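Weekly structure sync, notes
Attendees: PL (lead), two postdocs, one rotation student
Agenda item 3: pending single-chain targets
PL asked that the sequence for the first pending target be pasted directly into the notes so everyone works from the same version. It is reproduced below exactly as submitted, 427 residues in total.
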Amino acid sequence: MYPTVSRRHLLAGAGLGALSLPLLSACGSQSGSGSGDAGPLTFMVLGGNQELNAYLSDTLLPAFKEDSGLEVEVQNSDWGSAFQKVTTAAASGQIADVLLLGAIWTAPLAAKGVLLPLDSYMPTLESKDAIYPEMLADGVWDGTQYSIPIDTDVRSNVYRSDLLDKAGVDPTALPTTWAELREIATKVRDAGVCQSPIWFGLDKSIGLQQAFAVLMFSNGATYWKEDGTANFDSPQAKEALQFLVDCFQEGLSDYHLVMGANAQRPVVAGQSAICFGGSMADIADARNNAPEVVDKLVIGTPLTGPSGSGPAGGAWINKLAVAKASKNPEGAFRLIRFLTQATYMSQWDRLRATLPVREDLGQEEWLGKEGQQFMELAQYARSQEPHPGMMSFGQEINELLQSAVRGSATVDETAAAINDKLNAFQG
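Predicted structure, written out during the meeting:
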């Protein structure tokens, strides 16, 4: 059921996962030359947790200080307000030296002149030969390396086997097409075993847009035409949108099920039997908060739409970058070199419930069978092409999709509105 995948072909391309998830509060960038007398570097970490913060303060950063003589001050933020704040901080010269970037943030920030070009530093990056080549290339914008991958996420459907079983569905015969998914979700709906047979990522951010991106990929659709204009009115994209709308209108998904920022994942809580575009976050939530559910979560192969040529899922690759305004760019890149060493990256990924971006970490024990299955399914992962406007598009697309699934706008109206939004940005 889970194909064997060449590690060299893992996860081609950049992530969609943070489409329009803004960045952190402004923080002062201290000077430093890489010597022990230099002022502290600042490191912006998004979406951290107590365990990760403890690991940074107690283990990783003391080791870095011993290695480099440099102290590092960590600033934490959630993902929700960060992008606008980091651009504001850059404009005022108060930006952190080292930045954790969301999956699609490289192009928007590089286009704004926020990030330091890294080409001249790349020969000193010992980890570059261990990082999956396609992931390393994801940090390139306009022919220049601006960021280095640190962790990734692969999206494929996650199922609750016990809920499928209650609905009379064989949990070992998972769907491979949209039609099969619809058939299974209908049985779950009719059995009344959960609130929303399929959860399409509805949350307080842009989860619906992310799930729709996976639908588009699986149906052979792209965001952009060859001439650079928006492609949401293509037959493949409109077919994906119609399928999404139909699922809500037919009661196969419930738009009232909106996950809060710190809430349990719906497939873990038993509110949904199918998480469309699910990820390691579901597995991590079960491991940490509902261990009795772990063995009931089954990872399926990404689906194929009626116009698609094969299964396709999503890839989200978070990266590290140096602020162009950093007064100690050498020290900042030295921290990136340190963080991407195998031992430290492995712990970072484990504590963030993400997947490794180094080929030699693909079989880490902490991944468990579920994480290794996600790694094997990564051959199907697709990602959004980099674009300087992506941080603006995500929320707008999400809002338009919300109107469509609630019946406030037709598929044609929604496709045209999304096209207009994206093309207006193009000028």
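Discussion points:
- Confidence is low (pLDDT under 50) at residues 1-37.
- The first helix runs from residue 50 to 68.
Action: rotation student to compare against the earlier draft before next sync.
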